[in-house]
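Could you help me review a protein record that somebody else here produced? Do not assume that whoever made the record got everything right. The record follows directly below this note.
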Amino acid sequence: MAHHQSAKKRIRQDEKKKVHNKYYAKTARNAVRDLREVSEKDAAVAELPKVVSMIDRLAKKNLIHKNKAANLKSKLAQHISKL
């Protein structure tokens, strides 16, 4: 267990950040899943910019790797073009 006040504070901060990051990562994953389930092209095209923005924000904060973000965006665009 931590003995120094700064180490205890770091543990508290890390736990807060973990919960915060987990929420945004899960929200983005749900948005990607919901976009993949959409069957109408118009609705999917309207939703794509929102999901891409979420993915970009996660990549910018290093919650997901930038290449994973690029792959997700590419796959979503391919999926929508096939509708």
